[in-house]
TrEMBL record:
Taxonomic path: Bacteria, Pseudomonadati, Bacteroidota, Cytophagia, Cytophagales
Keyword flag Phosphoprotein: yes
Source organism: Thermoflexibacter ruber
Pfam hit, one: Response_reg
Domain (Response regulatory): residue spans on this chain: 6-124
Protein name from the UniProt record: Response regulatory domain-containing protein
SUPFAM superfamilies (alphabetical): CheY-like
Gene3D superfamilies recorded: 3.40.50.2300
4-aspartylphosphate found at: 55
PANTHER family reported for this sequence: HYBRID SIGNAL TRANSDUCTION HISTIDINE KINASE J
A single BP term in Gene Ontology: phosphorelay signal transduction system
Signal peptide (residue range): none
Keywords: Phosphoprotein, Two-component regulatory system
Keyword Phosphoprotein: yes
């Protein structure tokens, strides 16, 4: 029996957060959900995750800034965790912007849950 992968979902919309949780729990992932970038950094101090799904537009600290902060962490495992941006306005950013912030991939909202599951599987193998 393989160990359950730990997924951190950072999303300020409870609706999207809940659907994402259900879809991934159904795929046997263990989900932790937070509402903003500050909570991401807080929870990462105490926990390790296999992947982070991060909304770009969040209150307090947005996903781009949060990704930059994660990449600066001194703990190598934590600072290299795959980050997938989830955004409704990807056209405001170039792939270069995402890369520069340390984001591995991005998924467009409204979320395609097949693509979400496929991306999470691929990045957590």
């Amino acid at each position: 029996m393989s160990v359950q992968k730990q997924v951190l979902v950072a999303e300020d919309s409870s609706v999207i957060q809940n659907i994402t949780k259900k879809v991934l729990q159904f795929q046997n992932y263990n989900i932790t959900a937070v509402k903003n970038g500050l909570q991401v950094l807080e929870i990462m101090e105490k926990n390790d995750f296999d992947i982070i799904l991060m909304d770009i537009n969040m209150p307090g600290m947005d996903g781009m800034e949060c990704a930059r902060q994660i990449r600066k962490l001194s703990d190598e495992k934590k600072s290299s965790v795959p980050i997938v941006a989830i955004t409704g306005n990807a056209k405001n950013y170039t792939l270069e912007d995402f890369r520069e912030a340390g984001i591995n991939e991005y998924l467009q909202k409204p979320l395609n849950f097949d693509a979400l599951v496929e991306t999470v599987k691929r990045l957590t193998q």
